[in-house]
Amino acid sequence: MKEDERERVIRQFIEEIRAAEESNDYSEINRKSIENRLGWYEKNKDKLKLEGSDVRKAYTLLIREFMKLKPEEAPIVYEDERKIVWHSYNWCPVLEACKRAGFDTRKVCKKGWEKSVQLLIEKINPKLRFTRNYNKIRPYTEYCEEIIELTE
User: What pTM was estimated for this model as a whole?
Assistant: First the structure.
């Protein structure tokens, strides 16, 4: 993404987050994020190359296919058949918007963007759960720790 496009996205997110904070209603952010992720999935599902356990497939779907991140931007720090944990270091417009406007990423990311990730990974398996470790999230730490687990 070019610098001017990044800047436009950051400004847009600042406006959207500010409106959500003022109304205490993140439904519009959720709606747009869900529409974006699930629309992308429907358009691309037939050409996805996903291998491994369901948690590995979900990670690949989210990080490599949808977000187009390089391995070093979201390295896996733990993986077994039921759980995968990674640290996100990538450029993030939500993080940049929060830093500039003084919003708390622990609140904003949970309320505005977690549900869309959850719905995307459920396309792999409805028993998968996405979470973040909100004790390890930028800008409070150097990375965001994110987890996908297979639940019972």
Answer: 0.94
